[in-house]
Structures are given as C-alpha cells and as structure tokens.
Amino acid sequence: MTAVPHDSASVAAADSIDAKERIKAEAYRAKREIDKILDMRDSRARSSIDSAYLERVPQRLRFKLTLNASGSDLDTRGVNDDGKFTTEMKAQNKYTVSLSASYRGLSLSVALNPAHLAGKKKDYELNMNAYGNRLGADVIFHSAKTFEGSVHTSHGDTGIPAGMISQNMLTLNAYYALNGRRFSYPAAFSQSWLQKRSCGSFMLGTSFMGGVLKARHDEVIDNPESRISIACVGIGVGYGYNLVLRHGWLIHLSALPEIVVYSHCHITTDGSRTNMPYRFPNIIAVGRMAVVRHFGRYFAGFTAVVNTSQLGDRDILLLNNTKWRARMFFGIKI
Questions:
Q1: Is the domain of 75 the same as that of 40?
Q2: Rounded CA gap, 290 and 253, in Å?
Q3: What are the pLDDT digits (tens) for 153-198?
Q4: Are residues 166 and 307 both part of a single domain?
Q5: Fewer beta carbons under 10 A from the terminal one: N or C of the chain?
Q6: Which residues constitute the domain of residue 28?
Q7: pLDDT, mean of residues 85-106
C-alpha cells in the first residue's frame, strides 16, 4: 500500500478559499437581515408621508465628497470698574474634506483636516446629526483655544492675543416638524429623500448648551483669571420651507428661535464665584439653509447651519456666542 503524498500548499489554499466563502456567506446573511429591518422602516415611513410631496431616493447606495468649513465668534458687552466695554473675538476657521458612503440612510464618513496634519491646529470639533422627516437633532462639541480679537473701552482699543481665551462647549439642538408628512429636512441636508413639491412646516424645538469659557490672567489688558460656566435649556417654535424649482433644484430655509427656560450659569474670578447676571429674555436660535440639485445619478449642493445664543444681562454682562458650519458637496447615486 502506497501513501499519498500530503500537499500542504494545496490544503492551505483550500482552507483559504473556504474561509473566503464563509466570510462572503456571513456578509450576505448580515446584509439580508439589515435589509429586512430597513424594509420595515421604509414601509412605516411610506405610510406616514404624502407620496405626492415626498419620495425616498430610489438608489440604495450613495457616495458623497464634501468640503466642510466651520467657525466660532464670541462677543461680550457689559460694565466693569472702568465703565462700559465690548469685546469681539473669533476662533480660527476649520476646513476639512470628507468622503462618505450611505446605504439606505446608514452612513459612514471619513474626514481629513490638512491643518491638523501640518500641526497648525489647536482646536477640536465634533459634529453629529440625524435628520428625519419629523424628528431630528444636531450634536456639536467645540473646543477652541485660538480665539483672538479686541476689547473696546472708553480708554481705547486693546488687542486680545490668541490663547488668552478658551472655550469648551457642547450644544444639542432638536426639532419636531409638525408637517412631516409633506416637508422633509433630509431632502435638504442628507439627500436621502426627494421633495417633489414645495412645502413648509412649523417646528417645535429645544436646545441645550453646556460648557466653560476661560480667560487667563493678562497684565497688559489688566484681565484677571476667570471662567464662566454655562448650562441652559431653551424651547421654541420656528418654521421651515422647501422650495422646489425646475430641473431638480431645491432651496431650503428655516429658523428656530428659542427662549431660555432654564439657566444655571456662574462666573468665577480669582477664586470668588457668583451667579451670572440674567435678564429675560435670554435666547438660543438655530438657522439652516440649503441649495441642492439632483441631475440624473448625480447630486450637488451647499448647506449651512448657524447656532447663536445670547445669555446674561445687557446692562451688566451679555455673552453672544455664534457657531456656524457650511458644506459644499458632490455625490453619486448607485
């Protein structure tokens, strides 16, 4: 009896093929389960919208290249021992390029910040958003150490150097569209729906802001070390409108002003802590705009979101904080 030679290379190749087939089978099984869940979601969505106004984008897969820009402004005015003062400060703008893939509304994105790669950025920003026809929200965390500007007093103007003022701020904005059957935020901001006819909607909104604004001691402008701790909640009513034009154009505008109904803010200076002055009304506002065009398998456009707040007492200390971001994009539907 003659033994058959054992070919280890052939066995390894067969095992490798079997492993690849198992991976393909598991991936197909996972995709099938995900599709079942998304089919149920889409079925419920179709029953809750007016198909004469809204339609989910028929292509299941979308790729999008986006140029992102964002910035932050911080202004104050008030009264101190030397009289009235105002300050105007800006953080360095941030620019990133991102590539995203979306399968039936589930998205994955990778972003590149050239300034960070070159070691020139000290600021950090995280943006997350989920837009639905009825419910949606933005979550923004911004850590900035590059604010610079000037302070204006009766004695003249003095520069505020970069690094003297820093801010860590978390902002949450949420909305509920009352006419979600016919009006779509995703049509403008995620391009996962198509707005077929012009329509608007009143919205209910709520926002939360929480964070810390710090100022280090500076003898040149006679500024003591201090910090402002912020925690506030706003609620309000706004309106949004999607204007549908010929040749696949969509223009979106919306505004959601809110009144601060809860505020827990205080100031700490040289170890002494006091409540931040307050005078009704304190305001948080969110504005959004978008221009989108679909042409065949492709789409392109521009979106912008502005978050602004006004906290305090204009006769003692008033803090204006504005955070904005803008996006230009081009995508393909498959």
A1: no
A2: 7
A3: 878 888 888 888 899 999 999 999 999 999 999 999 999 899 999 9
A4: yes
A5: N
A6: 1-47
A7: 88
